[in-house]
Amino acid sequence: MEAREQLKEYLEANNLKLTPQREKILGVFLELPGPVSAEGLLAEVGGDENGISLSTLYRALGHMLRAGLARRIQLNSGTALYEAVDGCCCHLICERCGRRVAVSSPYLEGMQEVAARQEGFVLHRCRSQLVGLCPRCAAEAGKKN
Ligand SMILES: [Zn+2]
Fold this sequence. Notes:
Blueprint: H1 3-13, H2 20-31, E1 36-37, H3 38-45, H4 54-66, E2 70-74, E3 80-84, E4 88-94, E5 100-103, H5 106-118, E6 126-132, H6 135-144
Parallel strand pairs: 4-6
Antiparallel strand pairs: 1-3, 2-3, 4-5
Helix pairs in contact: 2-3, 2-4, 3-4
Bound molecules: zinc ion.
């Protein structure tokens, strides 16, 4: 399941809405290359400019933690960092109509783990794009030929 859908489902189950602010925070958070502090994330999302206060951000982070999308890392210095825990997120993307389908498969994830390990990497998350034609566009392209 996509992170956005996962958060939306969690929020709806708790009678909350996926507000533009929460969606923005999630989107920015997931694109970060590594763990971030709440203040760091606030700077990334543009803070006040986007109507996001530190308390809004903390609440959103709390939801993301409980929805299983984020992990909290408590440093010895007392600072807490947050890291995305969405495992694998691969998308099939149709280059003709732009349709996106999220796919997740243990097989794909396993392959990525192996590839990362071979290079000595510890994998946190992946962003794969498999680009081609969706069934509808492929059928249409077939008709023309
Ligand atoms: Zn298509």
